[in-house]
Amino acid sequence: MTASPRSRSSLVTLAKSKLHTCIGYVIPSLANPSTSIPLNLWRADHWYNKPSKKAARPSKEDYTYYFKHNVHITTSGNFSTQGLKFCINELGADRCLYSIGKPPEFFHNIRANRIDTPYDSVEDGQAWWRTVDLADDVKWDVGRNNAIRLFKLPLEI
Predict the structure, then answer these.
(1) SS3 96
(2) What are the backbone dihedrals phi and psi of residue 99, each rounded to the nearest 5 degrees, phi first?
(3) Any idea which residues carry the catalytic annotation?
(4) Looking at the DSSP assignment, which residues form a beta bridge with residue 96?
(5) Strands 73-74 and 96-97, how do they pair?
(6) How far apart are alpha carbons 119 and 22 in whole angstroms?
(7) Which end of the chain is more exposed for a tag (fewer CB within 10 A), N or C?
């Protein structure tokens, strides 16, 4: 069974979003859209799960399933407690990681007017993280343990 052109188009769009999410951590000139993707999962699933789409789609599951089982997201310089809690609620705490983003020193040889210049400092990120009101075990997982598991770091959890 082959997917319809419209179904393939939506898969390409989602694939590009995921690719940009992954590349955003490596190439500083690309924005990190991972914080907005959880907002769009319901809408994507609603469209993708319509009977006419579901019968022709190439995947067994909807977008949310694959996102929850294959993708991790980070705070990546977005210091919003409500935004973090939303992501934890949508994807699970095991899929969320605390991240400050790239420190200003990373950009020492990049023109100051470039869009990829960091908005906040490491100190701003640390100050925000200290105020985040999550259960201690969730905060440890998001702040440390999930990264250890994801990257298979030789550290004790």
Answers:
(1) strand
(2) -150, 140
(3) 116
(4) 73
(5) parallel
(6) 20
(7) N
Q: What is the pLDDT of residues 118-144, one digit of tens each?
A: 567 778 889 999 999 999 999 999 999
- Nearest-5° Cα angle at 31, 122 to 154: 55
Whether 116 contacts 110, CB under 8 Å: yes
Q: Which of 33, 51, 71 is the last residue of a domain?
A: 71
Distance of alpha carbon 17 from alpha carbon 99, whole angstroms: 19
pTM here?
0.70
Task: Name the residue among 68, 71, 49 with its Cα closest to residue 60.
Answer: 49
Residue 73 β-bridge partners: 96
Mean pLDDT of the chain: 77
Q: Locate tokens 């490596």: which residue?
A: 26
Q: Give, in order, the Cα–Cα distances in Å from 157 to each of 132, 134, 144.
A: 21, 18, 9
pLDDT tens figures, 85-116: 999 999 999 999 998 876 556 555 555 544 44
User: Is the distance from CB of 17 to CB of 33 less than 8 angstroms?
Assistant: yes
Range of the structural domain that residue 122 is part of:
73-157
